[in-house]
Amino acid sequence: MAAELWVRGPFGLGSSTRVTRPRCRAVLVVVPTVTAGTRLLDLVSLLENDLRVQIVFTVPHTTQRWQGVEEFVRGLDGLVLPWAQAVAHRFDLVLAASHRHLDELHGPILLVGHGAGRVKPRRHSRKAGGASEPTTGVDRELLTFRGRVLPAVLGLSTDSEMDLLRERCAEAAPNAVVAGDVCLDRMRASRHLREVYRHTLGVPPARQLVTVSTTWFTDSAFGQVPQLYRAVVDALPAQRYAVAAVLHPNVWAVHGRRQISAWLADAMAGGLLLIPPESGWQATMIAADWVIGDHGSTTGYAAALGRPVTLASVPDGCPQEGSVADAVRAHTVPLDWGRPLPDQAEAARWRAGKLAESVTAVITSRPDRSAGILRSAMYRLLELSEPPWRASLPLLPVARPLPRWAA
Questions:
Q1: Cα–Cα distance between 30 and 151 in angstroms, integer?
Q2: Which of 22, 148, 166, 355 has its CA 20 to 30 A from that of 196?
Q3: E strands of 82-193, at which residues?
Q4: Positive/negative CA dihedral, 316, 317, 323, 326
Q5: Tally of helices (H runs) and strands (E runs) in the chain
Q6: Which DSSP helix (H) or strand (E) runs through 273?
Q7: Is the Cβ–Cβ distance between 310 and 232 less than 8 Å?
Q8: 343 to 160, 221, 222, 268: CA distances (angstroms)
Q9: Rounded Cα distance, 367 and 48, in Å
Q10: Pairing state of beta strands 273-274 and 148-149?
Q11: Torsion sign (Cα): 45, 48, 50, 56
Q12: 231: number of CA atoms within 13 Å, CB side?
């Protein structure tokens, strides 16, 4: 395969002969997955309108990569560098939401999580033969390389994650900051647009929106109960209910948009609103009246917003203690096909308040403060003074379901 041509960008040899805005700090955004990319866009929004800063994107090119990531990044209309060019240059700041490829990058790295919480929802290990104890997102093997701590700043969501970091990788603790959760903060800031989001989805005030949420892998809701979507559509009268589906981007990446749309075509014909993977899931959760979900982050975020939640599936075994999935499971009940769904929705509403309190505490220790904390950290690494305006996150865009004819 022919090597990718390098981009004549605003840095590197000869850049002074082609730039229009000179001496900008160069920020590299590393996007290995759509999930990581959507999280990093929240950070980019805190920097990109500064005339002293130039944002560029890259997609890691290895022997394996997720389908659709390149298209996602190109769709952002930003300057995209080939991976070989990105790892050949030093940047003033590198933004990452995945542990992969950090040792290949040059420049101070700010690393944040790409989901809700650093404690994994299920016991999982990449080690041969498994791990002697449950793995987390703050393990030494993820944060260091040849004895060197990789992130210059590690953004944590909760004080308990800081305690866990001190146990799992004490040498990284001086680089860590408890910043809260930027995704939840953005959703909380956009809650007043709930009726706008519902209107765009075609849900009038007289109807209730039921959102079916799934993470990926075989123990997810889609993996265990693939017939769930059609069953929910059929069980609820269309005059009173609308049903939307939010699937983890990795489901789309592994199986393909055409196949997912084909698998859900019957449900879409019955009225299912299928939300695309690259945008809209947050607005759909805000718009929802009831969420049927699993142990994934999207269900956790919905719970934190006060949405009633019922579980369609749980991971193999018990959720890992201290995870968002553990908090969700403690205050919900499984879906029961022997009972009318409206009755179960009403029962979930009675638990929603306690559920929101419990899950929010697991997701963030700094509610509504992540923008200011993370912006300060980024400007410190850039060695620039912060802008005079208040750090704030943009309101979430509306959700636009895939057209039913696409299925």
A1: 13
A2: 355
A3: 93-96, 109-111, 144-145, 148-149, 153-156, 176-178
A4: positive
A5: 17, 14
A6: strand 273-274
A7: no
A8: 36, 21, 23, 24
A9: 23
A10: unpaired
A11: positive
A12: 14
On the CB side of 23, how many CA atoms lie within 13 Å of its CA?
1
Q: How far apart are CA 114 and CA 134, in angstroms?
A: 19
Query: Per residue of the chain (407 residues), what is the pLDDT tens digit?
Result: 456 788 988 888 788 889 999 999 999 999 999 999 999 999 999 999 999 999 999 999 765 678 889 999 999 999 999 999 999 999 999 999 999 899 999 999 999 998 888 777 755 544 444 445 678 889 999 999 999 999 999 999 999 999 999 999 999 999 999 999 999 999 999 999 999 999 999 999 999 999 999 999 999 999 999 999 999 999 999 999 999 999 999 999 999 999 999 999 999 999 999 999 988 999 999 999 999 999 999 999 999 999 999 999 987 767 888 899 999 999 999 999 999 999 999 999 999 999 999 999 999 999 999 999 999 999 999 999 999 999 999 999 999 999 976 55
Helix (H) or strand (E) holding 26: strand 25-30
User: CB-based contacts of 377: which residues, under 8 Å, 6+ apart?
Assistant: 110, 153, 155, 177, 179
Radius of gyration of the chain (CA): 21
Distance CA(175)–CA(251), nearest Å, equals 34
CA 248 to chain CA centroid, nearest Å: 9
Residue among 180, 187, 100 at smallest CA distance from 375: 180
For residue 382, the tally of other CB atoms under 10 A from its CB is 21
Q: First vs last Cα of the chain: how many Å apart? A: 34
Q: Which residue has the tokens 């889609």?
A: 222
